[in-house]
Structure to design on (1962 residues):
């Protein structure tokens, strides 16, 4: 099903009824409204005005549309900030208060704002919790966007001290756990603890990790309070949240999504591609400039699907040029349809476009909508019409998403560790994760993302690019699994308090892999060393561990100097160095073969994805390509030759 | 005529009389003094000491020199700052107070400093307003240099709130005009308004534009107050100001210059070239390293000429290596003379060198003068002597500057819009304007700069690289003109409140051009698309608009995808995309031909300029070149072969 | 002799005795302890706990080891900061307080911290000053590391004002000396003086130089106070300090070391090479990635040797990968031994490894030690064993370091001047000094570093890359010397108050060289001009002076335009421009020939160094090379073919 984001408060009421009619006529089902409208819900302190909102819900509902209400907590109004300036966050890098004038100007640690957030959420939940036209709720908006998870406010400092007290009980335990004897960093009481900001040189990684976890916990607690209110006052309606790329939030997104019915993602392929490839030369970037890179969107679709049980939504789908990337091209013709179908192929339940009509004012006036500011149809309109026809042809409700054969473990602690303790400047957990994902996708594999303590049963192959601080539960899950499990370097690198584990890394992972990491070196990425696997030489760069066997294990690959580079014990494999995508593709292909998972090497701009009995294929090329379908495939959409920027869907031959 | 900048307070009085004698003997007419000397005019609060200044004026006057007094307001003394620290500006980027220790440490919004500025100006005007040796006044010095227009002080915030109240009358009007309903940015009263600084993410472009305009208005008001005092107390003397490159001030320079007799420019060709070409490789930069780029100086000469009615001055002319660029080469032999003659060719009335004698101390001790610190003649000295002879030969008073055939419209609002709403990171209004200028100059054209509401009558061609918010008066002027008018992309892009115009851009410009801009895309400059004009393919990059015809118009060029790229309706032409200088040269050449304006393609390092009946040609090459003169030309200076770094001046054959 | 850095407070007491036994068994002599342990020496304000320290000293001493105690002042404990937050320094760039959470969080100008530093030093000195196991003391740790010399605290401002008053006596003298009449920067009293921070644009170079000198003086005074206490309470024990690279401290290191018995250096060849070559491409960097560059370590060894009379120490020697460079490779096999022997070759008395056992917690958990965290031997262990054997074979006490034939003058004022008055962005004193050093080393020369007023008697060649503000004593020393003296450009550039000298540069140096510097130009390094010496053309770039002869002197080289580039008068030579290392090598080789100093051109990765009768050669290559030894050389270590990453030591044939 399709939806759209709508801001009735930005338009004359005279347009509302016609807008609703056109939405319905286009084939849309859902309309998200309300987020950002706090100054209209409560124009003066304590003075609510819901009449206009009652009216638009009525209009939309009567037109046959279902309403999703966003809580407006991303945009506290000026009067609230003026009454309680302590709501504002403080930038940990600069020490400056981050003020009013845009959005997200609030501190997750602020008790005042927590109370205010609950109050406005409750007011909305009480009024609309049982409204028949309301289908569900979106909490806040793109929580943690604009680097808002970390704050160095007095409230954050007080909260952090309390969090440390709760975790460690007494201050000596904290000093010991963090190793504060080093550099005389010992505290005598919890109220002596500083935030790890503004120090003369780097602070203790344990300190920084605690601050990261504390900050993530505040986001989750802030969010959970809204969910709880909505659950209590709007039973039977769904609650979701629209995520931005998971690596950009500084939050444990699995924890954040724990109480949601399903997760949603805001999908801007061109903006993301522009930013992710900003360092690439023109020849590398240009082929993706107006299509987006085929692995960047789905990388987040598959992560979003893994966050919560229900079929995920695309809450905001780019329909044309946006305004916030370095450069903002128009999508190539066909891409809005392609991106939409791709989301459904990866398991989306709903794709909702952002936004209905381009606003002629304020920060996003250069951001396209389905309509131009003058209400004429923008370029994406006919593509949405085509999607409506496609969806009718596909009848996707028949084809629920099945568990994949391959799981990719995503570990936010590994990301944080990589940021906190760089060791090698080019070590970047997100890119390492993405490289593994891209290698799997180039092999035509469906990929599920699982968190460290997630359920890994039923997978044939579990790929773990890095697992910073493996818990007992994680290890037990992996031991219980029948899958091949591949660990990348830096797995088991630390204890939960960010110290080296007893007996050297990989610490508790030795239950699976009897090895010891004797030392680590990091290399400039332009100065790789080498490793030899299966008779071929691959680069070994960026992060290289020196491994000692500490039990029954075989060496599957060696460095140029003869040291072990890949070690295997039973179904567990440890890759001690980072290499390149060519290696990952070859290596994972071989493991899939062993695990009985079929692979197929795809064209760089062709990707496939299965949903139930259907196989979707997407062609990002400017030329037609043959569908990578088996002989006798029955095409439900398209055919054996996939046009430029087009899709095909087939069933296996009967 | 020639002049020099002199700082008598920096030298023993014993040198003054001999200095005056040597200035006169060299052939100088004007001597600028006094700016920066506040601590000597008023060594203690309220205690004035003018005796030394009386004396030097007397000495200079008796030596036959004319004195220009600079008001010393760029350098308030320490005691004034200590008494009124609220004078200091606040950096909007960092929030830090910008303190004492250099110059320009004052906030244009400070009522205290406005009062103090008026007080010291009045004291000087009263004492010297009728002094027979005083020819005129310079206000302040390089106003807004060092990024001082914008300040985030409490005074600026209060002033901005009052400015908004004066402009919008009631707060709802402001909220509506800016679209503050977006993101709940609505204010309930003017005193709730913040400066657009320190927000979590980007602020409303309308908000930022208002802050820019407010800040520019404060500079103008500060300056106008000085002009008013000088006019009142020094009737018959000229008042001018020495501008730095107009794009660097954040000020509406036409408004600033409105009450001046003429404008002045501080010309440092090597420093400017070093900075403007800092991103260029050695092969591109090196040819200009010791000559400066031939289009960078005149770009500002021609703008300066357009600011005020009288013949402009070069108030400060580089005579040797300076101290403030990244690297500071020596001028190639002949260049000081060449630059001086070039200023006269472009209409200068006076060229004044900075400075008489190199100071052996403080910030500018590595900045050359006409004399070295030991009073010996520095390298430029014989070139000044040559200029004196050249001027005698030319007798320029006979040759007033005539209106050019081609006008280039410079729009400070377009510059500010480009900075506020980047949309594409590589969009840079100043470089776009400069590219148009360079194309015109490479065609040997004289160019006048006009502001948006300036007089365009009498031109054959009006080139408007971008016109952000066209006013009714601008449109009326253009409609009344018989010129061909070429608009670049982003013309008519916004209303005066920085919203998209009714009916889409170019809004009110549709009176001239019946088109609608349906969408905009921005591309990385290294990933251009293409457009075809006149059978040739040119790049279309950075900024590309999708155009729909909305009336009688012809499509003069198309994008590679067939869309309209250049549209023409009568004498109005709209170019919907940015291209390169090769395109601009070809295209403008063709329009000149149509408009009956003669063009001639010049060597990259040769430029010509007319003044009355005279044509000047300048050779920046290290080799001689033939003068681009018609057969039978009568040479007044030089001859048919122009030497390296030399000039020739001729009249057309009789 | 060898040593190690040990942190008993970080380990269970149960490990201490065994650690001591293993240290001794390995062949170590010295153990440094105590620095960073303030929170254990004084866990509560005024409550000392020395029992544990008594015990470990006893254990180490009884094991046959000698103890070096570090004063713990680099790490004031939290309770001290909380009681006296004014101890914290203020970052002059950002204005932010640099807080607790790492190390070096104190302001050298703080009277409170000076008192506290003296108090804890005294407590240690009183307790251990006569302890028989204590061999000596290390003051603080890596003083001024992490850019801590400069602070913009209120204490620094007050101190600076007093320092100015002491230097200039009355404020008019200061105003005149600095040229404060420029830009009305005049002060009326010393308490009006600001620190040269936060100004709108650049501040007076005299002001900045004074701030640099003041700040350096505070470091020295802070340090001298510790030395004085230690001398008074621990007679007969040595006092030293462990320096970081001398150019990184912002301190006059010769002044700092004035009262030390010997200086020590912390030697991290791979980290330094990673940072110093960060701008180099892979082909240039890669050969040194795991060996370090052969001239970067010794550049600092030779400087350290010149700081104080006794044989210098390496107080911290890298034994494996570190944690603080951009990338942190493992040393190539053999390099830990090679680096150690190289330090001895350059005159070291002791090399002490950092650290005994890798800590599993806190900031340096990824920094290798001699042992891994689990007490197993890390990679360097067998190389230390080999060094022990080497030292036994060499018996270095027989071979004291002799004065070299060539002196390189290192002038911290020239470095500061280059940073304060950039003039050309690519002018970098440290790289200029290093280039001269590298050229001399490539010629197989031993090099002594001398400060400007240092003793230059006995040298055959004195190389002075730049001498900013030559004193009468320096000039007298140079005149008295029989050496050839080569000055680089910018010598004699300024008076002591950072003004141009009377009669133009080189001012007082005209006693040696009758020339005048008429002007200076700076060029982009990629746009060099040329100079011709000895029939060959070399680049002349970055800094170029125009020279006039002012007496008896010959022109030894000319610029391409014919101007003098190298001038010579008797034994004094002035090189007026920067060139490249090829020029320096050719030119210095010719001067050595004249001065009777033997040279030999070496392979880029081979270096030699003499100690007494011994000649050491070090091969950084991955392949063997012939030892650059004379026929008949008697090898004490190694032989005529030096293996990869190996050394040879020989005596001349009898």
């Amino acid at each position: 099903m399709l939806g759209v984001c709508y801001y009735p408060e930005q338009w004359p009421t005279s347009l509302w009824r016609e807008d609703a009619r056109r939405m319905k006529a286009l084939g849309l089902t859902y309309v998200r409204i309300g987020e950002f409208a706090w100054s209209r819900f409560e124009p003066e302190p304590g003075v609510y005005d819901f009449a206009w909102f009652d009216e638009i819900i009525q209009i939309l509902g009567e037109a046959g549309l279902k309403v999703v209400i966003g809580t407006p907590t991303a945009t506290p109004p000026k009067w609230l900030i003026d009454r309680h300036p302590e709501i504002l966050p403080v930038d940990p890098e600069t020490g400056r208060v981050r003020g009013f004038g845009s959005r997200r100007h609030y501190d997750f640690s602020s008790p005042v704002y927590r109370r205010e957030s609950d109050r406005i959420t409750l007011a909305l939940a009480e009024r609309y919790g049982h409204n028949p036209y309301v289908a569900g709720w979106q909490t806040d908006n793109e929580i943690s966007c604009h680097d808002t998870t970390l704050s160095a406010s007095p409230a954050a400092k007080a909260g952090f001290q309390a969090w440390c007290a709760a975790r460690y009980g007494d201050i000596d335990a904290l000093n010991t756990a963090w190793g504060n004897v080093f550099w005389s960093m010992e505290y005598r009481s919890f109220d002596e603890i500083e935030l790890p900001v503004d120090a003369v040189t780097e602070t203790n990684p344990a300190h920084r990790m605690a601050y990261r976890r504390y900050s993530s916990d505040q986001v989750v607690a802030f969010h959970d309070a809204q969910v709880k209110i909505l659950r209590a006052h709007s039973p039977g309606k769904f609650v979701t949240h629209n995520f931005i790329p998971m690596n950009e939030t500084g939050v444990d997104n699995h924890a954040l999504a724990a109480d949601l019915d399903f997760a949603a993602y805001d999908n801007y392929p061109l903006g993301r591609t522009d930013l992710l490839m900003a360092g690439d030369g023109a020849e590398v970037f240009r082929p993706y400039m107006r299509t987006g890179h085929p692995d960047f969107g789905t990388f987040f679709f598959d992560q979003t699907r893994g966050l919560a049980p229900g079929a995920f939504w695309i809450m905001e789908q780019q329909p044309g040029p946006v305004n916030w990337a370095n450069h903002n091209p128009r999508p190539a013709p066909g891409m809005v349809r392609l991106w939409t179908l791709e989301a459904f192929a990866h398991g989306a339940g709903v794709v909702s476009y952002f936004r209905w009509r381009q606003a002629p004012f304020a920060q996003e006036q250069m951001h396209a909508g389905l309509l131009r500011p003058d209400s004429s149809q923008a370029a994406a309109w006919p593509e949405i019409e085509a999607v409506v026809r496609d969806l009718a042809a596909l009848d996707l409700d028949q084809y629920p998403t099945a568990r994949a054969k391959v799981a990719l473990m995503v570990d936010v602690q590994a990301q944080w560790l990589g940021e906190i303790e760089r060791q090698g400047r080019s070590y970047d957990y997100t890119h390492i994760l993405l490289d593994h994902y891209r290698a799997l996708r180039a092999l035509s594999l469906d990929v599920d993302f699982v968190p460290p303590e997630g359920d890994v049963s039923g997978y044939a192959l579990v790929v773990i690019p890095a697992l910073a601080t493996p818990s007992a539960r994680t290890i037990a899950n992996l031991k219980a699994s029948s899958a091949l499990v591949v660990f990348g370097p830096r797995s088991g690198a630390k204890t939960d308090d960010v110290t080296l584990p007893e007996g050297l890394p990989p610490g508790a992972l030795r239950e699976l892999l009897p090895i010891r990491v004797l030392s680590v070196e990091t290399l400039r990425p332009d100065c790789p060393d080498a490793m030899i696997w299966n008779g071929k030489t691959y680069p070994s760069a960026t992060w290289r561990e020196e491994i000692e066997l500490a039990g029954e294990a075989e060496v599957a690959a060696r460095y140029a100097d003869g040291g072990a580079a890949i070690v295997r014990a039973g179904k567990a494999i440890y890759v001690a160095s980072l290499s390149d995508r060519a290696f990952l593709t070859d290596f994972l292909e071989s493991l899939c073969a062993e695990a009985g998972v079929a692979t197929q090497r795809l064209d760089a701009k062709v990707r496939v994805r299965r949903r139930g009995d259907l196989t979707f294929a997407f062609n990002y090329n400017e030329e037609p390509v043959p569908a990578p379908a088996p002989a006798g495939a029955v095409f439900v959409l398209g055919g054996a030759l996939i046009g430029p920027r087009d899709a095909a869907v087939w069933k296996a031959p009967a």
